[in-house]
Design brief:
The protein is 22% helix and 12% strand. By secondary structure, the chain is α/β, with parallel strands linked by helices. It is elongated and about 135 Å long.
Length: 517
Amino acid sequence: MDAPTRTAPARTAPPTVRLDTARTAPTPHTAAEPAHHTTAHDHHHGTATPHHPTADEDPHTRARTHLGRLWGVPATHTHLTTGADDTFDTLVRDTPLTPRDRIWTTPHESVARLHTLHTLRDRTRCRLEVVPLRPDGDLDLDWMRHHLDDDVALVSVAHLSPACGTVNPVTAIGRLLAPHRARYALDASHSAGLLPLDAAATGCHLLTADAFRFLNGPPDTGIAYTTPQPGAPAGSTPPPAPHPTAVTALADTLTHHTPAATHPHTDHLPRLRAALARIPGITLLPTGTRQAGILAFRHDHLDAGTLRHALARRAVLLSKTVAHEHPLHPASRTGAPALHASLHPATTAHDIDRLAHTLTEVLHAHTHPTPHPRTPPTAPALPTPRTPPARPATPTPAPVRTLPTPRTTATPALRSTPALRSVPAPAAALPALPALPAFPADPGSAGPGTRTAPSLAAVPALATPTPATPTASGGGHRPRTPAPAPRRTRTAGRRGHLTLHRADHDTTPHPPPGGQR
């Protein structure tokens, strides 16, 4: 009987800790999820009255109704848009200003809104001023009070700084601007859904926010509130409207999120700040006296991109902030990116502890890397140098042995041939040949005055002993000499020049050129 097979329990991956809501919002709620709305009056009396949308209620109307309750303003003054930056650009870029007018902004301004303000300044030739910060990081209200007059036409302030989470005193600024003509624009992109906000109490004239951040709305959706302002451009362009499908999803999101946004939740930011402060090498970016939802920090030696990727591999998601996103903020002066942790209302204490523990592991792994044995890489083979082919050495000729002349009998005289031209011997190959003796002419075979070729046996250096061959007459023997190697010579047309051929025993005379014999 076979033993039962035991299988190891499958390891489940740890849940993902999302601390990047300020940059990329989590998955929005769908229309299929149950949506309940609790009014402030019912909450105080301990009863909960769910809000059930009727069939004749338009999603656009339902979303604006919940938006008015969220900010405490009339629903008729609310708008559903494609985003906070698009709405701000549409409603501000056509503001009628003169070169005498001034625009105020703060160091917490985002680069998108700064682009709109710079475009307005370049078109109207007005002045753009930045409200300074106090040493503790808060806006200097005394400076604003001292420099405020009727020349200030537009003031742009962020409710929650996206750079480091500083909460600005928007209500105090509204009371300061109320007696003057300045138009008050408030940016709630990072506070809507995270902090309660009473738009009527702030006294703002324009309130814009993104719905896809802490409100968990669908992508590319925003909300806005406007109030009639004296001096505003007549017939200004309305803010861009989102897609009808996004309107339906945004209405369901606002219906579900209204109770969580109107009532306080547990703030885990002090726990996060204390956990990061205990880690060596971590530096928290300076903030004001009040902070919420967002915390930025750097490491002394490791860059933000390396830490962010290492944490993401361990299912802890943070975002990264760079200098060009908030060019006026003091934290951007160094130019080094920073890590950006943003807390959602659903963030738990376990998520904070998980971030601190994982960050400690990442820093320890980079400070004390574990050595891994690795096979040293094999050096690439160097190319074999090409050597030129060696020249063949000139062979040393073997010495020629001179043998004694064998005994021969009388050899009949050769037929007369034309005079032989002297052929140069190879260098250092053979010894110098003796001068050829003159032989008498044979009157029977050559003409008068013709020299006959000497017998090869008469030259001692070229005589080679060979077996004797009997002559045709049967009397005596003569040595058989090897035939000399043929030599290629150029045949000339002049008289007396011959082409040497392979010698034979019976030398056949060749007629001289020109047909003469």
